[in-house]
Design a protein that fits this description.
The protein is of the alpha+beta class. Strands 14-16-22-18-20-19 form a 6-stranded antiparallel β-sheet, with no helix packed on it. Helix 5 (112-138) packs parallel to helix 8, helix 15 (362-370) crosses helix 18 and helix 15 (362-370) crosses helix 19 (440-460). The protein starts with 6 loop residues before the first helix and ends with a helix. The model is unreliable at 1-15, 260-278 and 760-784 (pLDDT under 50).
Length: 971
Amino acid sequence: MKQRPNVKSKNAKTGSGKGRVYFLSFIIPIAIMLLAYSIVQFYPVGDRSPLTIDLYHQYVAFLSEFKRKIEASASLFYSWSIGLGTNFYALLAYYAASPMNWLLVFFPMSHITEAVTFLTVTKLGFAGLFFAILLKNELCPQGLYTIRDEEDLTRLGKEGHGTDAWIVTFSVAYALCAFQLAFSWDIMWLDVTAMLPLVILGLNRLIKEGRSGLYIFSLAFCLLANYYIAFFVCFFVALYFFVAFMTARAGEEEMLKRRRSRVVTRSDRLTLEEGFYLKDLKIRFWPVAIRFAVMTLIAAAVSMILLLPTAISLADTSAAGDKFPTSWSFRFSLFDFMTHQLATMSPSIRDGLPNVYNGILALIFLPLYIFSERIPMKEKLAHLSLLAFLFLSFNANGLDFIWHGLHYPNQLPYRYSFLFSFLLILMCFRTVTVIRQYSAKTLMTTAALGLFFVILAEKLSPDLLGHGMAYVNMFFFLIYIFLFSFIWKKDYFRTVSLLFAVVMIGEIAINTFLAVGHIAQDEVYTSRSNFISQFDDMDKLIDLAKDQEQGDFFRMEAIPAKTTNDGALFGYPGFTLFSSTSREDTAKFMRFMAFHGNNINSYKYVESTPIGDSLFGLKYLVYKEGQTRDILLEEVGKSGDMTLYRNPYALEIGAVADPEFAKWQPQFTNPFKNWNHMLKKMAGLENVFVPVDPVVVEGSNFKPSSGDGESGLRFSPEQNDKATLMRLEVPVDQSQYVFLAVNVSKDTTVKIKTKKAGQDLEENYEATNPTGASDTAKDPSGTVELTQNRSIHWIETFNLGYCEAGDIIDVSFEQKQDKASDVTVYASTLSLDSYKAAMAELHSRAIDVTEWHESSLKGQYKAEKDGMLYLSVPHDSSWQVKIDGEKVETASVGKGALLAVPTTAGSHTLEMHFIPKGFWPGLGLSLLGILLWIILIPREKALVMAYRKKAAEKRYQKRLAKALAKQKKGA
């Protein structure tokens, strides 16, 4: 039979069919996700958006801030929109560094939800594309004919084509694996998971071919796009290096087995036949390991412009300092873990088993991989060892702690499970490349074992695998058994491969639909129309505030908040912050002052006091519903149902404080005492808050109260397994402001209503607002009445506003039977005269901001004596401060929470510039890394091959000398 010419080169080198494979691997995951989103009624099919969990409260707000910055060519170092001011550079490194985010400029804010959808599905498409590139270029040495039904290439026709279908199938499996679906809303993670295949392809080229360009580029890209997930990739690559090296050596040995080697001597000359020469040229561990380490360091150096400043900033976050587990334990059984590999499993988001589904064919191909005779033993042992280590990492709490960077993650378990899926899918594809070694009977039997496992799992783990889910998996296993029965029939191979692709992609699509449906049901996708409905009104009120200030510095907040980062979302200088990169000291300080916050990485403006508003420079408040009971606020304007109020007592950025303020820190459990103490240390001011004692009215399942309004009125449940109700009244003897601070440790619903003396409480205006906002209305006498209904989990402030003499404030606390816990109530009134006097004194000491930009600020002030500048800015050592042109060292107050600067008496100018600490050294390291990259990469392959040849010559000379000596001795 006539031999087909150049079969290998035609398909492996010219890339026949590559464009089609790459296009399908990219577009199919996108199409499946868009269809899934359409099924759950995403816009424009319905009114849902992709915003859910932290994507709603954090990521979309930070993307909005990033979009504004690049459109305005503003500094990326700092943002006044977030948390009184924050290091945006560190925040960018985690949340918004993806190069794809620059495409946001093409989306107006009214379509920010569609921008998020576009970014999500496109990144999943790239995951499929890059995985296809890895398979096509690394595991398909014979192109279309890698996976075939004939050993002899000369006999192959079109029916020998099977590779392309399998490449697309496994690429889609990776793009839509369980991890990608469960955390698809963590869009900043998806860049790195998409790039992982290129990192591994680059690593293999480094080891086999002496080319490191792709490895350096892809690894540096991961580190720059999202250092957090890149950490997992770096850890994995360090382990996979040994796997890749063993695989490369095994491949060499297989090749050398097919060659004969001999040495021919002609006089004094040495002639090496190709086989023997290749044996001497084989990959050596230490030279390759050293190059791997060097190239990894170069990739890390390239990314230092972002990584070094971020690493310095992260030292102040809650992620630093977790303690290693004191005892080791295992969390789940191997059987349950394997059950989670089945289709239709609910994604683990808050907690649960690792997300490891990749298509149920993995349960068939993994056993075949283990027992394959065509896959070299070294290659199998290396891959299986790493797979087993990943499983143990999931299961053992100590290893899991190490994988998560010596940190306990807050929900979102096993954030590195995509690595398990990646490795397993790679092994499954490798199994398919040698599938011709197995008979149809063997393949059908293995698939039948998978079917038996489903039946067993339904019986033994009904909490994981329900009846309907089991039947879906049984159905697909039966189809795979049927297809395996035809795989070796004459002229059926290509057709069966295509059918496998269709069925497996269909299985993955069904799993995707169900996973997205679970998220829609359990976590809730936000209404698009509701999310974007406030943008226009907020824009108008923000512009109105800017017009009022004429360039002066100001802050504002909206009540109730839409997200936990409204300043970033709407683009105003705000108070609220929820970010993994926020400073823990500041978050703890806000808890002492009874602001809503988790004491770790968030603080949120729900309600405050006039003192809190004024000291933190909150000059404008937007009330979205109802009216305010604060008579000190001045109405500025309205837009829709929103009203903008101005606080005339607010400081701009800070004021001169007395020297004693340098050591001040909150130390009381009563937040009103902390405010009083702060004012006293700042300027020797008298108390503005005066405690008041609530009166217990009625309730159930609580012990008699102890304490008072100043020390805290404490309640404890009589029985922790019963629901609790407590009801208090706060009488108002004279017209004044009234405030509560309620401290709880478990979810507690607090309801507050006002009434006139002698009036039935139920006749009052009543409304429920689950966001925690205050609802107000006017009774016939013209008094603004208040109703609040807020669920809290820790200490929070309740601003009851200005109450008239004779008003009675009714307060109740409700706890469910599984939430019964202690409740402490602090109650206080505000002395208006003392408050006005205090603010008059502070305004005489205030800093007058003359100029401010994204990462800088200038101002003037006058100090009567030496002291400290109090700045309502979170402390960050990256601030560079000059007074009268001379650089001064910064300090902090409030247990490291707020920025302070020592000052001398007299009139001074203040200049503040924010440059992230480590930026300039990081820039230098990046330039050095790029320079080394430019110098080494073009010459690398030639240098490597020259080194290998020289080493091979030395090894040959030694071998020849030994052979000649032995020959001479024998003679």
